[in-house]
Design brief:
Layout (H helix, E strand, L loop, with lengths): L2 E2 L3 H8 L3 E7 L4 H16 L4 E6 L4 H11 L7 E6 L2 E7 L5 H7 L5
Parallel strand pairs: 1-3, 2-3
Antiparallel strand pairs: 2-4, 4-5
Length: 109
């Protein structure tokens, strides 16, 4: 089960040092549906990793803050791997695959 990123306080906690994957999902994009399945599979295989799902339609201003805070262009679907204020990796659209997410897993160590 993915953690829902829905508040500024959660975002602040992540920025304070929590290593996490942030998955930006659009309910209006068919590619996001495919990406979501990949992210969910990753989370099932790696329950020790903090994975947050951010609905960019419902929480657009929060999504914009994520893009600004980590210096990336807004896209969806998109995954950011962050550790506090540091962006470790980001990928979007067809880069959001189980294989790619697992390859980047070592960045959290």
């Amino acid at each position: 089960m993915l953690n829902e990123l829905i508040s500024d306080s959660q975002l602040e906690e992540i920025q304070q040092g929590v290593a996490a994957y942030i998955y930006k999902h659009s309910t209006q994009c068919p590619v996001s549906s495919l990406a979501r399945k990949q992210v969910e599979r990753f989370q099932q295989k790696h329950p020790e990793v903090q994975v947050y799902r951010l609905d960019v339609v419902e929480h657009r201003s929060l999504s914009d803050r994520v893009a600004t805070n980590w210096g990336v262009r807004h896209e969806s679907p998109q995954v950011l791997i962050v550790k506090g204020p540091q962006l470790l990796w980001s990928g979007s659209h067809f880069q959001v695959t189980l294989r790619k997410l697992e390859q980047q897993r070592s960045l959290l160590d």
